Amino acid sequence: MQNQKLRKQEDFITDVKRLRECARASINDGAVTPSYEGDPHRTIEILQSVLATEIVCVLRYTMNAVSATGISSESVKKEFDEHAAEEYKHARMVAERINQLGGVPDFNPESLATRSASQYSEGSSLIEMIKENLIAERIACEHYRTLIRHFADKDPTTRIMLEQILAKEEEHANDMHDLLTSHERMPMLAENG
Fold first, then answer.
1. Phi, psi (rounded to 5 degrees) for 186
2. What's the predicted TM-score (pTM) here?
3. Taking the chain, what is the end-to-end CA distance rounded to the nearest angstrom?
């Protein structure tokens, strides 16, 4: 029994030594260590799409906050501004993750629309703006759920980041639905049953 304990301690010490040696040997790989099970290049490619989606959302919410008019537009403008700021935070998180994986975040405006899961749509009225934002949030929620399943345990850092973003996107979708129901005088979400 005592020998088994000693062997386990020696194994741990050997593992620590090996970890240190590996860390020193691959120092140029930054945060991507040998135990990273994902494909960093593919992850970066996927995250470039997520980054574009978040930037398009920032632009759409900002444009909506600036151009919304009508008797009840002030409270909606405030909501749009709040969402734009949160989408910016998401974009920054994603850009930081791309950087950690050894990539360069792509902020090129020329390719945003083709890389983004959501569309840039201004809406001609307050109701249309709310609807377009609700649609965009629903697209983001579905997209991020798929990506979370994809990354699973292969890249827990990216998965956790996307889970945090998804939680906010679901909140945004709920906010847009609430605004839509109050402005269209529609009933709230139907109960599942």
1. -95, 160
2. 0.81
3. 58
Q: Which two tokens stand for residue 8?
A: 């386990």
Q: Which two tokens stand for residue 120?
A: 């840039």
Q: How far apart are CA 183 and CA 79, in angstroms?
A: 14
Give the pLDDT mean for 129-146: 95
Q: Which ranges of the chain would DSSP assign to H, the alpha helix? A: 2-25, 40-67, 73-100, 112-115, 126-151, 156-184
Summarize pLDDT for 18-77 with one digit per residue, the tens. 767 777 776 676 677 666 788 899 999 999 999 999 999 999 999 999 998 877 788 899
- Tokens found for residue 51: 């980054």
Nearest residue to 77 via CA among 85, 67, 88, 86: 67
Distance CA(188)–CA(137), nearest Å, equals 18
Selection from 90, 51, 84, 87 nearest residue 66 by Cα: 84
Cβ-contact 43, 155 below 8 angstroms: yes
